[in-house]
Amino acid sequence: MTIRTLPEASARLEEAVKASSGDRHSAQDLYDCYEMVAIQILDSNFENFPEGELELYLRGYLAAIEYQFLTENIPY
């Protein structure tokens, strides 16, 4: 399914991670899942955005997730 907006990209990322993170046991495992899904989204949708825009957005989103994991207790 094609992603056409940046908010849609983050929503799809969250949905996919939620669906596949049941067996993640550590913050690192969960972050790795986010990273893997973000790469898949980028690979399949980069052509729908101006050059570099989706990559930059997803990198920022991953940085925010990483910061959240470092500063909060997350259940795992």
Describe this structure in words.
It is a single chain. By secondary structure, the chain is mainly α. It contains three helices and no strands. It is globular. The termini are far apart. The model has no long low-confidence stretch (mean pLDDT 90).
Task: Considering the chains and any ligands shown, give keywords for the structure.
76 residues, mainly alpha, 0% strand
Can I get a quick summary?
The chain is an all-alpha fold and 76 residues long. It is 70% helix and 0% strand.
What order do the helices and strands come in, and which of them pair?
Blueprint: H1 6-20, H2 27-45, H3 53-71
Helix pairs in contact: 1-2, 2-3
What is the tally of helical segments? 3
Output the structural class: mainly alpha
The overall pLDDT, averaged over residues, is 90
Q: Give start-end ranges of low-pLDDT stretches.
A: none
Order of helices and strands: HHH
Largest sheet: none
Number of strands: 0
Residue share in helix: 55-70%
Report the principal-axis shape. globular
* Range of strand content: under 5%
Distance between the termini: 30 Å
Could you tell me the radius of gyration in angstroms?
A: 13 Å
